[in-house]
Design goal:
Length: about 425
């Protein structure tokens, strides 16, 4: 290989070059390594920059998606809040409408009730006004009819002063009627006035009737009509004043009294029915209680007799305990304590003989249970688990491996049951001892 001269420059100035040496493989390898490393570093930086850019893109996309989801959730929350607000407003509006409707209904009912009350009061006032003026009108008509008859009856030219007698008779009843009205208004006793009115009316009626019968100028018919007029006017006026007095005093009418009596009768019947039902229930409860007590007494008597006959020693102790404790009869607690003190056993009904027999039987059962079974009655083989059936078409491993038996591994055969292992251990121990 021919050596070549290489011109060297230092800061752009040619310098003398050394003679060219031979091929340097190490330098080339180093240069190649540097170039490869530089390329790798550049690729790594480029890949890292691309990765960062992709990461920024992914991060930006993730943040944008998160913002979108957050905005959607905020929008959904806002819609939900709006819907809840609308529902609340609708509910409040419905409640307000319901309250207004109920209020309007209540006001309408009150107005209707007030209207009915006003109509009832107006009707009462109207009927009372008609009744008052009707009674006074009847009294005035009676006075008009009765006064002329009395004038004719009492007219005497020799005694002209008797012409004032009709005014006295009819005025007597009229003034007493005014007195009765005053008594009603001032809440005074009105009975004397009514008695006076009736006496005056009877006197006037009697005079009219006598005048009609004795005086042909008056006549019987006029006398009868005059008597009726003298009685009718004061009676009607007195009936009016009686009603006003009852209203003022708050005395119930016959209809109100009748309704009150019916209600009182119904309440009394209900109370009587309830009392009867209560008495029947108490009687039934008392009878059931007496029957239970009788049955309990009979059962206690039977129990005491039975115990006294079959367990006299225990009964003597139990009766002594009962007497000492002031009990009415031997309770189960007293009997159990007496049984323990006499027999020593805490279980009622168990004696020493029964306990010894029971323990002997338990010992024999334990001996029989623990004794091993040897011979043809042994159940060891029957305690083994079932073996898996061998497929007849399966190859015989001993023939295909040169006559060597196959290797046995754990789990190839079914294990013995725990009872079988115990029985085998007992039998092997017994055989060794023999």
């Amino acid at each position: 290989m021919t050596a070549m001269s290489v011109e060297k420059k230092v800061n752009g100035t040619p310098v003398a070059s050394e003679p060219e040496r031979g091929f340097d493989a190490v330098a080339l390898a180093r240069a190649e390594a540097i170039r490869t490393r530089t390329t790798a570093e550049a690729d790594a930086l480029r890949i890292e920059a691309q990765g960062k850019a992709e990461a920024e893109k992914i991060k930006a996309a993730t943040e944008a998606e998160a913002k979108r989801i957050a905005n959607e959730r905020a929008a959904m929350r806002l819609e939900k809040e709006k819907a809840d607000h609308q529902a609340t407003l609708a509910k409040k509006a419905a409640e307000t409408a319901k309250y207004n409707a109920e209020q309007a209904k209540s006001e309408k009912a009150e107005k209707e009730e007030a209207g009915r009350e006003a109509a009832r009061l107006a009707e009462q006032e109207r009927s009372e006004r008609y009744w008052k003026w009707g009674a006074r009108g009847i009294y005035a008509v009676g006075l008009i009819i009765a006064a002329p008859i009395q004038f004719l009856h009492f007219w005497d030219p020799q005694r002209p002063f008797l012409v004032a007698a009709p005014g006295l008779l009819e005025g007597f009843a009229l003034v007493l009627a005014f007195g009765a009205a005053w008594a009603v208004a001032h809440r005074r006793d009105v009975a004397p006035y009514r008695i006076g009115i009736m006496l005056g009316a009877l006197i006037a009626a009697g005079i009219n009737l006598y005048g009609g019968m004795s005086d042909p100028k008056i006549g019987l018919n006029a006398g009868i009509i005059g008597a009726i007029a003298s009685l009718g006017g004061p009676i009607v006026l007195m009936a009016y004043e009686h009603g006003i007095a009852q209203k003022t005093d708050g005395i119930p009418s016959w209809r109100e009294r009748r309704a009150a009596e019916k209600q009182a009768e119904a309440e009394e019947a209900a109370r009587a029915s309830a009392a009867k039902a209560k008495a029947e229930a108490e009687e039934k409860a008392a009878a059931e209680k007496a029957a239970r007590e009788q049955a309990a007494a009979e059962e206690q008597q039977r129990r005491d007799t039975d115990r006294q006959q079959h367990h006299p020693e225990v009964w003597a102790v139990a009766d002594a305990l009962r007497s000492a404790r002031g009990s009415q009869y031997v309770t189960e607690q007293i009997w159990a304590e007496a049984w323990t003190r006499v027999t020593g056993c805490k279980t009622v009904g168990i004696t020493l003989d029964i306990e010894s027999q029971s323990r002997a039987a338990q010992a024999r059962m334990q001996t029989v249970t623990d004794t091993p079974i040897i011979g043809e009655f042994s159940l060891i083989e029957s305690q083994k688990g079932p073996r898996a059936k061998r497929d007849p078409n399966a190859p015989d491993g001993r023939r295909n491996n040169g006559g060597t038996p196959p290797v046995r591994r754990a789990g190839d055969s079914a294990p013995y049951a725990p009872i079988a292992r115990k029985q085998a251990s007992i039998e092997q121990t017994t055989e060794k001892k023999d």
